[in-house]
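Practice problem: predict the structure.
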Amino acid sequence: MQELRIKKATVEDLNDIAAISRGTWDGDDYLEKKAPEWIMDGSLYSGGLNGRILGTFRLSPMPDGVLWLEGLRVHPDYRGQGYGRQMADAAFQTGKKFIHRGEAECMEFSTYIYNHESIHISVSQGFRIVNRFIIMVREGIESSGKIEIIEPYHKDFSDILSYIPCGWKYPRLSPEGISWALKRSDIYRNGKVVFVRKKGSDETTPVSGAKDNPDGFFDGAEAAAGLAGDSHSSIILHESNVNLIEKAYKRGYKTWEPVDGSNVLIFRYDM
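Answer:
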């Protein structure tokens, strides 16, 4: 196996990056869409061999000194040959340099529980699990519920324990983290239940009131999905919301694959 050349990605890499993205998650991947923006802000890295880009990763600043890792990909034709580990190693070493220079305090990322290779590589690099969530989906929704878009306040996040689900990124619960999430989300109210839905995403998470009124949250989440033109409702819940998770199952929500508890893990590496 040859050594990949790691560098900042450029616009000349876009065609190869698109090929990588189209071969990831059965083509339902965000990398191709986000790559131009990430190249412009200098956060996307590529790994090349013989003039062809085979892999990518992104490192970007988040609130509270977090350096967020995402977009770790390898072209489907080159998986299982050690290039994934090369890209992961390069991402971790690059992130550690930011930390050593005092430009970040730690690295974090989220991943699906069955992404065994990424989890194994991450643990071997010194990452540890710091939080768990569950993503659940209900298909075939028919919602006529009425919700209102609101201007939120930080106090509206009273049910959030430590991290705020915002798509597949999870800012920490802090004034800076809340502000970061609010800029990227639509915020709704259904009665006394407040929930957020990341712009451009189908995932909804409750931030206050859902523990006392689970059906108010589910009705609101499904109404928001209907407004967006979705035929399904996708929700993200912290693993500690056992009662809400049980009620979600009874309402017809399911996980993508059978899980015992959570299916999204948040990892952290710090010095």
